[in-house]
Write a structure and sequence with these properties.
Belongs to the ABC-4 integral membrane protein family. By secondary structure, the chain is α+β, with helices and mostly antiparallel strands. The chain is 67% helix and 8% strand. It has a six-stranded mixed beta sheet with strand order 3-4-8-5-7-6.
């Protein structure tokens, strides 16, 4: 038998331990290859979509590469630790340390070549399906399958270099010592580990402070907490698993009524040892799971913003013209002509907002004519407004502001025109985007409006004109007014947007860009989160199977003592459930409180709720974790009972 054959047989013989490592590596290569296929796709010619794809996929590939490097380092260390007895026997039989390092290098490269080949093949097989999903997201007419050397070269080169780094550095993890110590393995190390009460209390304190600050945050401090809380939570999580949990278990052991009951003593005592042995692994799983939850949650909140975009922008098109705008008629005729050509149903209402100073607040107040407001309201299907002379209504800038404004009753004097108005509550519907008319807008009776307008005309008051297009099928307007929007974009890039005598807003066009961007980012994030999720489960899988021989011996002793299969499963459940669901539960808590802070940010930016999307994210991860647990438990029970 040659040295390479010996290395190959070692990999095959330890396939049970390497299974999850191989699966996670294949999945990482597959996702990386799919990203590369989209990155180099020749059909993505749209400049904006191409930039999104390149930036998103490029960033995802860098994150995936770095995480996979970390994942492989940790996994390889676990494998070498599990095979310490095997290495001890080889050294005892006369193998040199240099030969052992060469053996590990060859074994790792065997797995690496197999993972790269399998992952690249699977990635190309599913490329067409991947392109179909991306095509629907970015609304491209076609995204055909293609064959090019670039995605293959990038994937193979990246992961080949990664496995070579692992293969070279991996032998460092071999413990140097006597062969007898290696042969005894971890049997000599099992026992009750110590812990620090101080760090235990600090872990609970740090997590409690973090949760309290996240739950009670406000707009003024939330940005600062984004930099302060992650390090505090990370340190608190580490101390929680290394010291706080052993402290809590010690408290339980000191309570004989809780501890000295049936199989509870066995489960708690064994759990205490496993907890201290696996504390760092639990910490890593928690952080990785939290990153997965947060990445998908944040991206899902972006799609929530896109889905509620219509509520924030009720108009299909909007055009604002200043008095000196010579292109006003040309632009309005162009917009009307393009809508009629499409054809797209619409209602057009022309406004001339007026501005005066309120004696009540001393602030400028914007006024709109009741007849124009009623025309626009009827096009939405809302009830019209009825106002007598001297009466007015607030026009809420957003749905959330209605309740506060509706309870207000204000008698004010318009200082410039000397017109007195009695503002009684607010109109219950939002008709304009919040940034158009301002926070202090009222609707005037026709007679009062004409008085203020006459004063403005006599005193050369600046009057701008606002054209409101209500388009029921507003998403079809993405191609309306492109030339106007282009001129605005050019002026913005040149820094001359304030010099233009007009402004144009096309929510349909903006929504198509926002929807494409956020949907593509969510899709990229989901694939990355799946890698994180699979890796988090793999960490637990590695730890279970590296101690499988010791567990089999322990349960053999219990079986001889007369334990039944039902009691056997009960003990296994009590040992496996904490290992699978406790780190996940802590990550769930971290993410839930982080999402409370995220909701505060969204409330300040757009007044939208992200509860529905975040609940779906957490429920989805919960279901996947349950399925993963039963799958691993099934194989674990089979191995413990001696099945192969």
């Amino acid at each position: 038998m040659t040295f390479r054959q010996f290395a190959y047989r070692n990999v095959v013989r330890n396939r049970r331990i390497y299974a999850a490592f191989f699966m996670a590596s294949v999945f990482s290569v597959t996702v990386f290859f799919l990203y590369s296929m989209l990155l180099f796709h020749p059909s993505i010619e749209n400049r904006f979509v191409q930039e999104i794809a390149v930036m998103g996929m490029g960033a995802a590939e860098i994150i995936l590469f770095i995480f996979t490097l970390f994942f492989l380092f940790y996994s390889m260390r676990a494998f070498l630790h599990a095979r310490s007895k095997e290495f001890g026997i080889l050294l005892h039989l006369g193998m040199e340390k240099r030969q052992l390092q060469r053996l590990i290098f060859i074994e790792t490269m065997f797995i690496g070549f197999a993972s790269i080949a399998a992952g690249t093949f699977i990635g190309y097989v599913f490329s067409k399906f991947f392109f179909m999903i991306v095509r629907e997201i970015v609304l491209l007419p076609a995204l055909p399958l293609y064959l090019s050397w670039e995605p293959f070269a990038l994937t193979i080169g990246a992961f080949l270099s990664l496995f070579m780094i692992i293969s070279i550095v991996a032998p460092v993890f071999i413990r140097t010592g006597e062969a007898a110590d290696l042969i005894r393995g971890e049997a000599k190390r099992r026992g009750l580990y110590g812990f620090s009460k101080t760090r235990g209390y600090m872990g609970l304190l740090f997590l409690g402070l973090s949760y309290g600050m996240a739950a009670s945050t406000s707009n003024s401090v939330v940005i600062g907490l984004l930099f302060f809380l992650p390090p505090l939570v990370t340190i608190g999580t580490f101390y929680f698993f290394t010291d706080s949990l052993p402290l809590l278990l010690q408290f339980i052991r000191n309570r004989k009524r809780l501890y000295w009951r049936y199989f509870r003593m066995l489960s708690i005592s064994e759990g205490s040892v496993r907890l201290r042995e696996n504390a760092r692994m639990f910490f890593i799983v928690t952080i990785v799971s939290t990153v997965a939850f947060m990445s998908v949650g944040i991206l899902a909140s972006l799609t929530s913003f896109a889905s509620q975009y219509r509520e924030m922008h009720p108009l299909g098109l909007a055009y604002k013209s200043m008095p000196e705008n010579e292109l006003e008629r040309q632009h309005i005729a162009q917009l009307v002509g393009e809508l009629n050509t499409a054809p797209i149903d619409y209602s057009l209402v022309r406004f001339q907002p007026l501005q005066q100073t309120s004696s009540f607040s001393g602030q400028p107040i914007t006024m709109l004519k009741i007849t124009n407001i009623n025309m626009l309201a009827r096009s939405f299907g809302y009830e019209p407004i009825e106002l007598a002379e001297g009466e007015a209504l607030f026009l809420p800038p957003s749905p959330s502001s209605y309740e506060a404004l509706d309870t207000r009753k204000v008698m004010t004097l318009l200082e410039e025109s000397r017109v007195t108005v009695d503002i009684q509550g607010a109109y219950p519907y939002q008709l304009f985007p919040s940034y158009v008319m301002g926070q202090n807008t009222i609707v005037l009776n026709k007679l009062d409006y004409d008085k203020v307008k006459d004063w403005s005309l006599k005193n050369n008051g600046e009057l701008f004109t606002y054209y409101a297009f209500n388009v029921p099928d507003w998403q079809r307007t993405k191609d309306i007014g492109k030339s106007i929007d282009k001129s605005l974009a050019e002026s913005f890039l040149a820094g001359k947007e304030d010099a233009l005598p007009y402004a144009f807003d096309n929510p349909g066009m903006s929504y198509s860009v926002i929807r494409t961007t956020f949907s593509l980012l969510l899709f990229i994030g989901l694939l990355l989160a799946m890698v994180f999720f699979l890796a988090a489960g793999s960490f637990i899988y590695f730890r279970l199977y590296t101690s499988l021989d010791q567990d089999r011996k322990q349960f053999d002793v219990l079986r001889r003592m007369g334990i039944t299969d039902k009691e056997f499963k009960k003990i296994v459940n009590r040992q496996l459930i904490p290992q699978f669901f406790f780190p996940w539960g802590v990550a769930f808590m971290h993410s839930s409180f982080a999402f409370l802070s995220l909701q505060v940010i969204w409330d300040a930016l757009a007044e939208i709720s992200i509860v529905k999307e975040l609940v779906l994210v957490l429920v989805g991860f919960t279901l996947m974790q349950i399925v993963y647990f039963y799958l691993i438990r099934w194989r674990y029970l089979a191995h413990i009972k001696g099945a192969r």
